[in-house]
Specification:
Layout lengths: L12 H15 L17 H17 L1
C-alpha cells in the first residue's frame, strides 16, 4: 500500500491579490506596526497597483 501525496492547492485569485496588496503596502510603509508612508507614495507604480487590486477585490467579493 502506498500513501498518495495530496496535491498542493493553488492559491485562489483572492488570496493571491490580498498577498500582493499586503506586500506592496508594507513596501510603501502603509501597513505594519509603526509604519510610516514613504514620501510621494501616491505617485508610485506600487500605489497604482494597489488601487487596481482594490477594484479587482471588490469585483470578487460583491
Amino acid at each position: 500500500m502506498t500513501i498518495q501525496d495530496k496535491p498542493k492547492k493553488e492559491p485562489s485569485e483572492l488570496e493571491t491579490l490580498v498577498k500582493e496588496k499586503v506586500t506592496l503596502s508594507q513596501k510603501l510603509g502603509l501597513m505594519g506596526e509603526g509604519s510610516e508612508p514613504i514620501d510621494g507614495y501616491e505617485g508610485t507604480e506600487e500605489y497604482q497597483r494597489i488601487n487596481e487590486i482594490d477594484l479587482k477585490l471588490w469585483e470578487l467579493v460583491k
